[in-house]
Design a protein that fits this description.
This protein has 255 residues and is α/β, with parallel strands linked by helices. The protein is 28% helix and 25% strand. It has eight helices and eleven strands. It has a nine-stranded mixed beta sheet with strand order 5-4-6-7-3-8-9-10-11, with helices on both faces. The mean pLDDT is 88.
């Protein structure tokens, strides 16, 4: 299986050398655990290797994204000028918009190989503002449609948030990019995510934690699942350094 290295020190070894190419990988954790940094580092490291990526944001402005990268010495703007990195900011003040056309156009424009969607949690909270296509394949449209053949403007009109999230993740799979889908963890129940469905739909799940141990907060992560991958079963500590995230060997957590 082809794999895409994140370039994050200590992480790729956990997943047989990298993320499976073309998969949807869910990155979940409470606010402040480092999810956006992880996604940004993944895009930056690959862009520096000549592999373009798109950052889709519902939460963060372009300026803050660039500033955050600058804290780690990452020149985001330089990569944007070379069409190796693109930031797509999704507005949350419009009603019934289809964000997928915009994402598809930008992926095609820079011939992106990777994408980060930040975040599914914001998508779930504002889900009534979005229109999610039901049919995006003309062959399927011809088979299933009884009128207006080839119509590409069919959208899910129900009110199920889980159904909408399910459709959104499956739609992103059609991009053929390797996708990191960021979302929030819910600590008070057994779900890995705030929407309660994305952990089942995604091909892989990486959980990030920020736990208070005595008087110190300790950051850890674990690979909950990764299809077609013999992944690490351990909890790994990690630090956010001046160069970005650095993952420690599993043994360091238990010392």
């Amino acid at each position: 299986m082809d794999r895409v290295r994140t370039g994050i020190k200590g992480f790729d070894e956990q997943v047989e050398g990298g993320l499976p190419k073309g998969f949807n990988i869910l990155l979940t954790g409470l606010p402040g655990t480092g999810k956006t940094i992880f996604g940004q580092q993944f895009l930056y490291n690959n862009a520096k290797q000549g592999k373009p990526g798109v950052y889709v944001s519902l939460d963060m402005s372009d300026e803050i994204f660039r500033e955050q990268g600058g804290q780690f010495g990452w020149d985001i703007e330089a990569l944007e000028k070379e069409n190796l990195l693109s930031i797509v900011k999704i507005p949350l003040n419009r009603n019934k918009i289809s964000i997928f056309d915009t994402i598809e156009e930008e992926v095609a424009h820079i011939k992106a190989e990777n994408m980060v969607f930040d975040s599914l949690a914001a998508f779930a909270i504002n889900i009534e503002q979005f229109a999610v296509p039901l049919i995006y394949d003309e062959k399927v449209a011809r088979i299933l449609s009884t009128s207006n053949l080839g119509d590409k403007e069919r959208f899910y009109e129900g009110k199920s948030k889980k159904r909408l999230t399910y459709l959104a993740i499956n739609h992103l799979s059609n991009l053929k990019t390797t996708n990191l889908l960021i979302t929030d963890h819910v600590s008070e129940d057994n779900n890995a995510t705030i929407d309660g469905v994305s952990e089942y739909v995604s091909d892989g799940v990486v959980q990030m934690f920020d736990t208070l141990v005595g008087a110190k907060r300790v950051r850890t992560m674990t690979v909950l699942k990764m299809r077609n991958t013999n992944h690490s079963p351990y909890v790994h500590g990690f630090d956010i350094t001046k160069e970005g995230i650095v993952v420690q060997p599993a043994e360091a957590v238990y010392q």
